[in-house]
Design a protein that fits this description.
The complex is a heterodimer. Helices cover 29% and strands 20% of the residues of chain A. By secondary structure, chain A is of the alpha+beta class. The model of chain A has no long low-confidence stretch (mean pLDDT 96). The N terminus of chain B is likely disordered. The chains are: A alpha+beta, B alpha+beta.
């Protein structure tokens, strides 16, 4: 690990000031090589610093925000669910209001990582976790456009079994590794962001950038900006929601395919639906068109097949991951069937 | 949810007892935080040792560490508590599991500086002062829940956390909530038995 300066912050302002104070000489960049990084759980950052993939010169510990600001709070009210960005994954997953009203969130968190990692990782950091692509994590591979912009993508012709089939580009096919983000995008969540010029709120769907030819710039966050909270609008029928995760082993593993779904049923007929797809996508992935296909239809085999086919219509399978198209479709259909069968 | 933030305390001497450290905590708290905010190692050379205070198993330790030092290395190499083990050093195996403010975490992915002012409990801190074992330690022995023993300190710390988090309600739940601790000898069936027995003993108090 390379040397760095360590700072602590008890507020977003302190954190952002520390970032900008260190940023006077050279322009920072919002990428894996940003000179200044915030640390909460450290479960991605410290790991990647040990691997020499990330090399920050300033690391600012923002754990003080958990007890000193609302970013440590969970609140459920008529305005929806408010999740502070410094809330740990385990605390959100175990929260009774989250479990009862947004089971898809609780399950996405519970099925991720290990208990120790869930006690460490903050919700804000979780959505920013970096890909598990081997070619990204191992610096002995020269070609990785995420790690070394313009160097190429070793995964395109390499071993790409775990890689994405949706939202990829000619420059990167790395899978977005998280689970929670798919629940957030399915629920139309908003993100509160603090920055040097004050705070702003954006749809969660606008947080992650399409890969294009700049896969090293993963989000729309400006340098120094800090996620302070997530807002999930009220959605009473999200009590009928779930997260289905298919993986190589039963626990403590990343998804090969997953589905975050919510259903609003009128008897046998679907009034409305939410669908997001994980394990198969390069960024948090909402399937709007597939949702529209379900509205007003009975949830029968024909409708499910049509929805699944539509959700993967744009899939671009590679040599080793073509199985993910069929696996993803089946995961989605099973998730919708299970959601329909939920007793709420 | 009301956040129960860590009480951040700093002690000046390394041999303070827990109770002394606790009474001193709040007088030193605010000044220490103010000093610490923004610039603990803002010296010209980022590699120069950074003074820090760690509270481990109720004892306070004053250290001067390279800022890159993980909590695991601080415990093992600088404090001499070698019970916590280094397996993968990347947060994948659980051998380094310790409790931070009562919650199980991975000490290999935690910088020592991030643990300042928090209560750190290692396997060495589980037994009673008279040396009698913690119920979970005894349960691991009673159920032969290990072979080589390398993962065992992490398994036991994780098991204590698992029970305290109320996620040890069934065999299936124990397996799921102990999945962050790998055992290369595959002593898993006995580990599940030990966690169940340890839980029962912990609840009897």
């Amino acid at each position: 690990m390379r040397p760095f300066v360590f700072a602590r912050a008890d507020s977003a302002k302190q954190a952002i000031d520390a970032h900008h104070a260190a940023d006077t000489e050279r322009k920072n960049v919002a990428s894996v090589h940003a000179r200044s990084q915030y640390v909460a759980g450290g479960t991605t950052l410290i790991d990647l610093m040990k691997l020499d993939v990330m090399r920050p010169e300033l690391v600012t510990d923002i754990n003080g925000l958990e007890s000193h600001t609302p970013s440590g709070l969970i609140e459920f009210s008529a305005k929806g669910l408010w999740l502070g960005a410094l809330v740990r994954m385990s605390a959100a997953a175990d929260h009774p209001d989250v479990r009862a009203n947004f089971p898809v969130i609780a399950q996405a968190l519970d099925l991720a990582a290990s208990p120790q990692l869930r006690n460490m990782a903050s919700l804000g950091g979780n959505v920013l976790q970096r890909t598990r692509c081997t070619y990204f994590r191992d610096t002995s591979y020269e070609a990785c456009n995420k790690r070394s912009p313009g160097s190429g993508c070793a995964a395109l012709k390499g071993y790409n079994r775990s890689h994405a089939v949706l939202g990829t580009s000619d420059h990167c096919i790395a899978t977005y590794a998280g689970d929670f983000a798919h629940a957030l995008i399915a629920l139309d969540a908003q993100v509160d962001i603090a920055g040097i010029d004050g705070s702003r709120t954006i749809p969660f769907a606008k947080l992650h950038r399409p890969l294009g030819d700049t896969p090293h710039i993963e989000t729309t966050l400006e340098p120094g900006e800090l996620i302070t909270a997530f807002q999930i609008p009220p959605l009473p029928w999200a009590r009928r929601s779930l997260y289905l995760k298919i993986r190589d082993r039963e626990s403590y593993e990343f998804a090969l395919a997953s589905a975050a779904v919510a259903l609003d049923l009128d008897g046998e007929t679907v009034r409305d639906a939410r669908i997001a797809l994980g394990g198969v996508s390069a960024l948090p992935w909402r399937a709007h068109e597939a949702e529209a296909l379900l509205r007003g239809k009975p949830l029968d085999d024909a409708a499910l097949d049509a929805v699944a086919d539509n959700a993967f219509e744009q899939a671009r399978p590679m040599h080793h991951n073509a199985f993910k198209v069929e696996l993803g479709k089946r995961a989605l259909k099973r998730a919708l069937r299970q959601a329909a069968a939920m007793e709420i | 949810m009301t956040p129960t933030g860590p009480s951040r305390g700093y002690s000046r001497r390394s041999f303070l007892t827990t109770s002394m450290a606790t009474t001193m905590t709040f007088t030193l708290l605010d000044q220490a935080r103010a000093d610490a905010t923004l610039a603990p190692n803002h010296q010209a050379d980022a590699r120069a040792p950074t003074p820090m205070h760690l509270r481990v198993n109720g004892r306070a330790y004053r250290l001067a560490l390279d800022i890159r030092t993980t909590l695991l290395d601080a415990l093992r190499e600088h404090i001499g508590l070698t019970g916590s083990k280094k397996g993968c050093d990347h947060g994948q195996c659980g051998a380094c599991t310790v409790l931070l403010d009562g919650k199980r975490i991975l000490s290999c992915l935690t910088l020592a500086a991030m643990a300042e002012g928090r209560d750190i409990t290692t396997i060495e801190g589980l037994a009673a002062p008279d040396g009698s074992l913690h119920p979970m330690q005894q349960a691991f022995i009673d159920h032969d829940a290990f072979q080589c023993g390398y993962c065992t300190p992490g398994q036991i710390m994780s098991a204590v956390g698992c029970v305290q988090e109320e996620h040890a309600g069934s065999d299936a739940e124990i397996r799921e909530y102990m999945s962050g601790n790998l055992c290369r000898c595959a002593a898993y069936p006995n580990i599940v038995d030990a966690v169940k027995a340890g839980k029962a003993k912990m609840e009897r108090g």
